[in-house]
Amino acid sequence: MATPTLEDVAQAAGVSVSTASRVFTGTAKVRSDKHAAVMRAAEELGYRPNAIARSLASGRSLLIGVLTQDISSPFYGEVLRGIEQGLEGSSYSAIFASGHWRVEEEASALHGLMGRPVDGLIVLGGHTPDERLAAMAAKVPLIAVGRNIQGLEGQCLRIDNVQGSYDCARHLLELGHRRIAYIAGPESHRDARERLQGFQRALADWNVEANPSLIVEGDFLEPSGLLAVEALFARGAMFSAVMAANDQMAYGARLGLYRRGIRVPEDISLVGFDDLSGSAFTTPPLTTMRQPTYEMGVTAAEAILAALSGTPLPAAEFRVQLMVRESTAPTHRERQRLSPLDSRSAAPAAPPTAQASDPWPQDPPYSGERL
Amino acid sequence: MATPTLEDVAQAAGVSVSTASRVFTGTAKVRSDKHAAVMRAAEELGYRPNAIARSLASGRSLLIGVLTQDISSPFYGEVLRGIEQGLEGSSYSAIFASGHWRVEEEASALHGLMGRPVDGLIVLGGHTPDERLAAMAAKVPLIAVGRNIQGLEGQCLRIDNVQGSYDCARHLLELGHRRIAYIAGPESHRDARERLQGFQRALADWNVEANPSLIVEGDFLEPSGLLAVEALFARGAMFSAVMAANDQMAYGARLGLYRRGIRVPEDISLVGFDDLSGSAFTTPPLTTMRQPTYEMGVTAAEAILAALSGTPLPAAEFRVQLMVRESTAPTHRERQRLSPLDSRSAAPAAPPTAQASDPWPQDPPYSGERL
DNA sequence: CTGAAAGCGCTTACAG
DNA sequence: CTGAAAGCGCTTACAG
Fold it and tell me: Is B160 exposed, middle or buried, given 0-12, 13-18 or 19+ CB atoms closer than 10 A?
């Protein structure tokens, strides 16, 4: 026989389909002997409730749509993993659609999701207009991760990009760096703009003059980080540290530095943002701002489930955390200031006065021209 | 009004639901004026066919189940991306379930997928018994990526792991390496066993004695690569190259080497397997065996679609390709053999005779004890 | 606690 | 080419 239906089970158990249905949905009490009979029959026949029929009858698809940008992105991948985890144990499954950072593709992905239709929607970043998202939110519970939606602030899971970026810059500044190159994300990304802003704010607070020639825009992917470093050298920029708006660009920058024979962190310090799972295994391990991506995914799923069950969760802002690893170090000058008589060095450190007369005594920033 | 149904559209267009249905499914000719009327009505009402109802009526869920191990894995992620691409344009969507390398979890993931039910199944690796997979294949088109299923060889998309691994080892051997440490994948993985076999076969062909103390087993993840290198040093192993059964373990090994202050490739060469997207950006860029993961994903999706439309595709074996990047170099000895009078070196190279009397004149393998 | 019945929104023979 | 009707496999008021 083909796959057994509820009717087969009911018949085998000697009850009505209504009763059989009730034992599976648990929506009403069923006399224990009938309950047992149904279970036995189901077991014997190898019955599996058909989710599609169930969906049509109940009006719920048991599908949560997830609009992502790239399923293989190390950043979104972590969020996806969290969502999967957060949905575990519920009867809901996630169904993904990718926008690949293209507006039209994102629109059609969203369209496909809503047409299925899904019972809830999780939106990861992207460029879909706020109004469109608000319109979907009117039909179905919606949670956004990593982006803000006008009027739906309570359903947006976010981090403080400005503060996170500020803290990365501060770390570098405290290490003595003053000429810091910045590899920005695309101007069209709000996250990218906020991170740049945090960087600039820190500079201002430290009275370091902003230097436009030290800023290059990338696209959040590795190759652009490499290109950015090359552009920096090509224009003769001088810097002792590089700060990238995300880890992937930091990886690219790392390669650019390696190509020039520049050591990290001895010659130049490097900082990223995100703390992708690979960042603990780069050479050297990358100092970066940890974003709790996995946790955000879990929370997004839980929030959707909560909204679906009628008890919406309040959205909280997530905390970021600076992971100081090995890609950052004090400038030579700063190292000497901290321990001018450091006995570990064979030769005695130069006296502070000698340094003052020379702008870059032991810590010359690299420049493209000089290499 | 709530979301419009086919009936609303039919009514607005002045036709029967049958006719309206036909213009959307395209299963039969419809007079052009009625066709236009239906389209107009649908447009005006903002009609979207309900995929669930359509599924129930047609018996097809339009869902392709994908059993993966970890949605955020850089390896599986690429395959997933390929699958998504391969399904694009079709009316099918992928729905993922992860086994996390645990047999029971994999079983329940598979169970959930079949219960939805899905119209086709793509299985990425895993440990589900062949018989169970064969049973599913009887119900629904099934394609496996990266694993072989007894009796379903024609539906398995594979690479030649033995040959790929052999070629990696050959690369190292041709560079002059003889003491090669090997970080194996888990014994329970067929892929892992095959790669180890390829490695050993190459060694045998070069008359290099197999040395069990140079082999460590990892679990295909980064930390195990790091641990493996530490274990190697702890046992005092001597080697001039490390070959890992996959890139992720190679990343871990890279960090282990870095921790010891060992340079790659000057001191020790390193080879991976897979060519993950990050491998072109490690420091130094990793020499590895490219596996066409994305293409395999696309092909898997196309094969499922083909099977669904009644014209199954023949399964082909995929070609792997050695990507020689910068993590491998000739041994010092080999370098000198190739250009004994290399004028680029300031000091003249030592005469070959001097070398012959000393087993490790300039190219001492590292050992844990000596560091 | 339980059964008969309507209905979820479509598709698809069947008969014109 | 087109309509009326049955049916996909469930859930869920409704009436006992």
Answer: middle
CA distance B292 to B303: 16
CA A307, A311, A315, A318 dihedral sign is negative
- Token readout for A258 is 């390696």
Question: How far apart are alpha carbons B65 and B315 in whole angstroms?
Answer: 19
The yes-or-no verdict on residue A353 having pLDDT over 70 is no
In whole angstroms, give the CA distance from residue B18 to residue A86. 42
B3 interaction partners in chain A (CB closer than 8 Å): 117
pTM of the full predicted structure?
0.87
For A135, other C-beta atoms within 10 Å of its C-beta total: 12
Indicate which of A281, A293, A295 best probes the interface with B, i.e. most B CBs within 10 Å of its own CB: A281
CB contact at 8 A, A116 and B93:
yes
Coil, helix or strand for B227? helix
What architecture is the B61-159+294-319 domain classified under in CATH?
3-Layer(aba) Sandwich (3.40)
> Smallest Cβ distance to A283: which of B48, B258, B278?
B258
Q: Please check the confidence at residue A343 and state whether its pLDDT lies above 60.
A: no
Instruction: Give ranges for CATH 3.40.50.2300 in chain A.
Output: 60-158+294-319, 161-286+325-337
State the pLDDT confidence band at A51, using cuts at 50, 70 and 90. Answer: confident
Strand partners, B270: B242
Distance between CA atoms of residues B26 and B44, nearest Å: 20
Task: Tell me: cis bond preceding B117? Omega within 30 of 0 counts.
Answer: yes
- CATH 3.40.50.2300 placement within chain B: 61-159+294-319, 161-290+330-340+347-356
Residues 75-134, chain A: which have Cβ within 8 Å of B?
A: 77-78, 80-81, 84, 93-98, 112, 114-117
Q: Which CATH class for the A161-286+325-337 domain?
A: alpha beta
Residue of B nearest to A51 (CA): B116
Contact B93 A74 (CB under 8 A): no
Tell me the angle at which helices B74-87 and A74-87 cross, rounded to the nearest 10 degrees.
90
Which residue minimizes Cα–C1' distance to D8? B57
Q: Which residue approaches D3 most closely, CA to C1'?
A: B16
The CATH number that domain B161-290+330-340+347-356 falls under is 3.40.50.2300
Q: Is A323 helix (H, G, I), strand (E, B) or coil?
A: strand
Confirm or reject CATH 3.40.190.10 for domain A60-158+294-319, answering yes or no: no
The whole-angstrom distance between residue A187's C-alpha and the CA centroid of its chain comes to 18
Token pair in block for residue B351: 């005469």
The b/e string for A43-74 (b: 16+ C-beta within 10 A; e otherwise) is eebebbbbbbebbbeeebbbbbbbbbbbbbbb
* Tens-place pLDDT, residues B214-236: 999 999 999 999 999 999 999 99
Give the Cα separation of A229 and A114 in Å (integer).
Answer: 42
Q: What is the pLDDT of residues B259-286, one digit of tens each?
A: 999 999 999 999 999 999 999 999 999 9
For residue B336, give both structure tokens: 């000198």
- Cβ neighbours for B221, distance < 8 A, ≥ 6 positions apart: B248, B249, B252
Each residue's pLDDT tens digit, A268-297 = 999 999 999 999 999 999 999 999 999 999
Q: Report d(CA B288, CA B321) in Å as an integer.
A: 8
8 A C-beta contact, residue A124 and residue A79: yes
User: How far lies A200's CA from each of A207, A256, A319, B29, B272, in Å?
Assistant: 10, 24, 21, 64, 40
> Residue A211: what pLDDT?
95
Q: Cα dist. B215→B84, B176, B270, B274, B328 in Å?
A: 38, 19, 14, 19, 19
Distances in Å between the alpha carbon of B218 and those of A223, B184, B245, B331? Answer: 30, 6, 9, 26
Please name the residue that has the structure tokens 């014209």: B311
